[in-house]
Amino acid sequence: MAKYDPRSLHAEEFINDEEIQETLRYAEENKRNVELIDQILEKARPQKTETGCVCSGLTHREASVLLACDIPEKIEKMYEIAEEIKLAFYGNRIVIFAPLYLSNYCVNGCVYCPYHAVNKHIPRKKLTQEEVKAEVIALQDMGHKRLAIEAGEDPVNNPIEYILDCIKTIYSVHHKNGDIRRVNVNIAATTVENYRKLKEAGIGTYILFQETYHKKSYEQLHPTGPKHNYDYHTEAMDRAMEGGIDDVGLGVLFGLELYKYEFAGLIMHAEHLEAVHGVGPHTISVPRLKRADDIDPDQFDNGIDDETFAHITACIRLAVPYTGMIISTRETEAVRSKLLRLGISQVSGGSRTSVGGYTQEERPHDTEQFDVSDQRTLDEVVRWLMENGHIPSFCTACYREGRTGDRFMSLCKNGQILNCCHPNALMTLSEYLEDYASPETKEVGYRMVEEELKRIPKDKVREIAEQNIKDIKNSNRRDFRF
Fold it and tell me: How high does pLDDT run on average in the chain?
């Protein structure tokens, strides 16, 4: 029997089934222990310091108690504290990105994904470099600055050399005032050598969803292909960090396994990264299983409703307060709106989950990886965010200024990240408003920029930001950053 050890590099020791089962028993026994719950909530609350705020976070056991709790007023308190934490460390900024699907060729047999090798009727497509360039121009014309590239696992059609060529192409495209300034990568688990190549190519965050932390379920859900290897997949983040990638992104696909098990495993994985590498995950994504080409979510019996989904999101924010949290267009406008208050700090907008989808006038469905619930344009998403008090941010400054990994987390943990992120968000929003926004969005946006500039506490920083925004309005000068 494997023994639980968060500092181990062996998957079954840092994601330990016996420890998770014991955690779930403990949580069930204490889910109405009001005294303990209040203690955990008080521990989770951000504490003000001379320089900003600090937050202790929660262990996987403490967080699991909160997730198991079914006392309505305590759940509401979790939501209040989750919003406090979000505002303390990320302010009212929401980072905007889009996925870019490069290829749906895949050799794996994942039973929940339409790209699985057994699916013989889905059209298979792989973008050429000219097609990549066309997709990038289409995304730049929308106003995007940050992409997450996606590809199936296929060593013949999608080797690492192809991915590297695509990254080079993406960064090379300068169209009007548009540039993709950060490329995040969501591809299959690979070797330390290949992670080094991705680092040298200038990627931002390496993202890999675990899908499920339950090993037996994992192996059943991935019956064939290299992804069947649970240990190799689960240990990928350690290899990525060994390869020099500072920022990694975790996530499970909620709906495949019992959500309380997945939640405990996810928080344990974050604890493991912190224990071994001194820095936890840069992001955590919270996708739910959705309908796709030959995938019916109703065939899986572990789906979660919207209220449970909100509860999970809030508990993740309490447990790992400094980590960015991502929600995609898998979710509806209503769900995204609620979760933005509970800790989400990044959203996709105007997304298409098909290969080559951005250059087509009508949204294609035949090669989509999943149904897109929020089908609004980027302009509509940007205006919606602002009308609800959020600053849409297209900023990539931290990555390009070397504020990654432990350097980013150290700034975030003492609250100082707001001193540069807030004005950077306003300047990149001004770029969007000037170059891409509809008249209605532009009007709403500049009202917000004017009000938010007043909130910058340091006079010098505010003066520089104001001057830079004037230059953005009156010239083609772009890419100002603190």
Answer: 93
Give the pLDDT mean for 36-43: 98
Among residues of the chain, what percentage have pLDDT more than 70?
94
Residues 118 and 154: beta-carbon distance below 8 Å: no
Token pair 């700090």 in the structure block, residue: 345
Contact status, residue 415 vs residue 51, Cβ threshold 8 Å: yes
* pLDDT at site 310: 97
- What's the token pair of residue 316? 């993740």
Residue with tokens 């009508």: 362
Of the candidates 423, 381, 419, 424, the residue with the CA atom closest to the CA atom of residue 399: 424
* Cβ-contact 271, 58 below 8 angstroms: no
Structure-token pair, residue 358: 């951005």
- Residue 209: CB atoms within 10 A of its CB come to 14
- The 3-state secondary structure of the chain, one letter per residue: CCCCCCCCCCHHHHCCHHHHHHHHHHHHHCCCCHHHHHHHHHHHCCEECCCCEECCCCCHHHHHHHHHCCCHHHHHHHHHHHHHHHHHHHCCEEEEEEEEEEECCCCCCCCCCCCCCCCCCCCCCECCHHHHHHHHHHHHHHCCCEEEEEECCCCCCCCHHHHHHHHHHHHHCEECCEECCEEEEECCCCCHHHHHHHHHCCCCEEECCCECCCHHHHHHHCCCCHHHCHHHHHCHHHHHHHCCCCEEEEEECECCCCHHHHHHHHHHHHHHHHHHHCCCCCEEECCECCCECCECHHHCCCCCCHHHHHHHHHHHHHHCCCCEEEECCCCCHHHHHHHHCCCCCEEECCCCCCCCHHHCCCCCCCCCCCCCCCCCCHHHHHHHHHHCCCEEECCCHHHHCCCCHHHHHHHHHCCCCHHHHHHHHHHHHHHHHHHCCCHHHHHHHHHHHHHHHCCCCCHHHHHHHHHHHHHHHHCCCCCCCC
Residue 284 and residue 250 in contact, taking contact as beta carbons nearer than 8 Å = yes
Q: What is the mean pLDDT of residues 121-128?
A: 92
Please name which of 312, 258, 323, 232 lies closest in space to residue 284, comparing C-alpha atoms.
323
φ, ψ dihedrals at 450, nearest 5°: -60, -45
| Per-residue model confidence (pLDDT) at position 336 | 94
